[in-house]
Specification:
The protein is mainly α. A four-stranded mixed sheet has the order 1-2-4-3. The longest helix is centred in the first third of the chain and has 29 residues. The chain is globular, with a radius of gyration of 23 Å.
Length: 478
C-alpha cells in the first residue's frame, strides 16, 4: 500500500504539471512547428522525408503523425479566432504531456529497482515538479525519445532479474534503436544499458543481442537516402548538426539560471555518484555531456535526456542525508517537503500563464486580413497551419525561403517574431524584406509582464517566441 501511495503522488503531480494549460505555457517554439509540418507531410504523402533536408531521423514525425491520424486530425480546421486556433497544437501538446507522465513512472521504476522506494519517490517527484520539467510539454524530438530511452533502461534492468533475459535484452535494444531513430544523440545511452546487460552475465553474446536492433533500426534513415540517391545530402545534413556554436558552459549557465533547484541538487547528486563510483549514473550522464561538448548539440533542451538521471542522482543524495543520522527525522522530512513544495509552487506559477496567446493573436490577424494572393513569410510555428489547415498556397516552409528563392507574388506579409529577428544575421534578404515593408501591427505578448531576472520567472528567458510579434506588409498593399 505504501509503495502504491509513493508512486501515485509523483504521477498525480506530473499529471497536473504536464496536462494543465498545455498550449498556453510554454510558448510555441520554432522547432515544434517544424515537427508538426513534417508529421502532416507524412500523413499527406506517406513519405517521412520532407524535401532534401536530412537533419534528423524519422521516428519523431512518425510518432506525431500516428497520433494525428488516430485523432482524425486531417479534418480539423478551426475558426480564425485566437482561441480556436490553439486547437491546432492542443492534441500533440497533450500527447507530450502524457509522455511526460509515462517518463515519471519509468523514472520511479528504474530508481525503485536500483536504489529503493525512498529514492524512487524522491526522483520521480523531483522530475514531476522541478520548474525545468515544463520543457517536456513541448513537441520536441527529445520529448518523444525519452520514454524510449527510459523504457530501454528499465527492460535491461528487468533482464537481470528474470530467466527471459534474451527477449528483454532484444526489446531493450529495439527501444534504444527507436530512440536513435528519433534523434542521434540518444546513442550515448548504449553505455549504461550495455553495462547493465554485461554486468549481469559477463557474456559478449548478451551485448550482441542488444546491439543488433540498436544498430539496424537507425540504419533505415541512411538507407532511405541511398534509395533516393541522396546519400550526399544525408551526410551534409548530419554534419550540419555538429557545427553549432553555443558554448557548453553557456548551456550549463543557462540551466542554472532557469532552474537552480534542479541544477544544484542534480549536479550535487552526480558529484556524489562520482564519490560512490556509481557506474550506472555516471555512464548515463558523462558520455552524453561529453558528446554535447565535442559536437554541436548545445541547445538548452538537449539536456532533456539527462534530466531523469539528475533527478535520480538528486534523490540519492537527499535520501543519503537521512542515513547519516545527523538530524532528526522530522527535520529531514521538513527539508524534503520544502524542496517539493518550492518546486511545485515555482512550476505552478509558470504554467498558469497563457504566454503563447500573442502568437495566436498574430496568426488570427493574418488569416482575417490577407488572402491567398499574398506571400506570407513566417516561422514554422505559423506556416504549417496556414498552408496545411487553411490551404494558403503562397506560404513557404519558413521565412528563410527568401534567402535562396524569389517570391512569386507582388505583395508579402511578414510575421516577425523573436526567432525572425535572431535570424537576421543569416542573410541581408531578411532585413531587406523588413526595410521594404511597413509595420502595421504589434502584439506585445504577456511575457513582458514578468521580470525574467527573478526566479522562477527566469524560465521566461526560454520562452522568447512568446515575446513581441510584429506584422509587416509590403508597401504595395493598402
Amino acid at each position: 500500500m505504501n509503495k502504491l501511495f509513493f508512486l501515485l503522488i509523483p504521477l498525480v503531480l506530473s499529471g497536473f504539471i504536464h496536462l494543465w494549460n498545455p498550449v498556453g505555457y510554454p510558448d510555441i517554439f520554432f522547432d515544434e512547428g517544424i515537427y508538426m509540418r513534417r508529421a502532416v507531410n507524412l500523413l499527406d504523402t506517406g513519405n517521412p522525408q520532407e524535401g532534401n533536408t536530412y537533419d534528423h531521423p524519422y521516428f519523431g514525425q512518425i510518432a506525431i503523425a500516428s497520433v494525428l491520424a488516430l485523432t482524425d486530425y486531417s479534418h480539423l480546421k478551426p475558426d480564425t479566432d485566437p482561441d480556436s486556433l490553439k486547437s491546432a497544437y492542443m492534441i500533440p501538446r497533450i500527447f507530450m504531456g502524457l509522455l511526460a507522465i509515462l517518463d515519471t513512472f519509468l523514472v520511479y521504476k528504474i530508481a525503485q529497482i536500483k536504489y529503493g522506494v525512498n529514492v524512487a519517490f524522491l526522483s520521480a517527484t523531483f522530475f514531476a515538479v522541478f520548474p525545468f520539467t515544463w520543457i517536456f510539454k513541448r513537441i520536441l524530438l527529445d520529448s518523444i525519445l525519452l520514454p524510449l530511452v527510459l523504457g530501454a533502461i528499465l527492460l535491461a534492468i528487468y533482464s537481470t532479474k528474470t530467466k527471459q533475459k534474451t527477449v528483454l535484452i532484444i526489446f531493450s535494444g529495439c527501444l534504444l534503436g527507436l530512440a536513435v531513430f528519433t534523434k542521434i544523440p540518444a546513442f550515448t545511452m548504449i553505455f549504461p544499458i550495455a553495462w547493465i546487460v554485461y554486468s549481469d552475465r559477463k557474456k559478449l553474446s548478451s551485448i550482441l543481442f542488444l546491439l543488433i536492433p540498436f544498430l539496424i533500426i537507425p540504419l533505415i534513415w541512411p538507407l532511405n537516402a541511398v534509395m533516393h540517391d541522396e546519400f550526399d545530402l544525408w551526410q551534409k545534413g548530419v554534419l550540419w548538426q555538429t557545427h553549432r556554436t553555443n558554448s557548453i558552459l553557456d548551456i550549463f549557465g543557462f540551466f542554472a539560471v532557469i532552474d537552480p533547484l534542479m541544477f544544484v541538487i542534480g549536479l550535487s547528486g552526480i558529484i556524489y555518484a562520482v564519490l560512490r563510483r556509481d557506474k550506472f549514473l555516471l555512464l548515463w550522464f558523462i558520455p552524453f555531456v561529453v558528446f554535447l561538448c565535442v559536437f554541436g548539440y548545445k541547445q538548452y533542451f538537449h539536456w532533456m535526456m539527462v534530466i531523469p538521471v539528475m533527478c535520480i542522482a538528486g534523490g540519492i543524495i537527499i535520501e543519503s542525508i537521512q542515513k547519516l543520522k545527523i538530524m532528526k527525522k522530522s527535520i529531514y522530512l521538513g527539508i524534503i517537503s520544502g524542496i517539493i513544495i518550492l518546486g511545485f509552487t515555482s512550476t505552478t506559477l509558470l504554467i498558469i500563464n497563457d504566454i503563447s496567446d500573442n502568437q495566436f493573436q498574430a496568426l488570427s490577424f493574418v488569416l482575417k486580413n490577407y488572402d491567398e494572393n499574398v506571400t506570407i513569410l513566417a516561422s514554422p510555428v505559423f506556416s504549417w497551419i496556414l498552408y496545411d489547415m487553411y490551404e494558403r498556397d503562397n506560404v513557404p516552409k519558413d521565412y528563410t525561403f527568401i534567402l535562396f528563392n524569389s517570391i512569386s507574388t507582388e505583395n508579402t506579409v511578414i510575421i516577425a517574431d523573436e526567432h525572425y529577428r535572431i535570424d537576421l544575421e543569416r542573410g541581408t534578404q531578411l532585413q531587406n524584406a523588413l526595410d521594404n515593408s511597413k509595420r502595421i501591427r504589434t502584439f506585445e505578448g504577456k511575457i513582458t509582464n514578468f521580470d525574467s531576472k527573478i526566479y522562477p520567472f527566469t524560465n521566461m528567458q526560454a520562452n522568447g517566441e512568446g515575446n513581441k510579434i510584429e506584422i509587416y506588409q509590403s508597401n504595395g498593399l493598402n
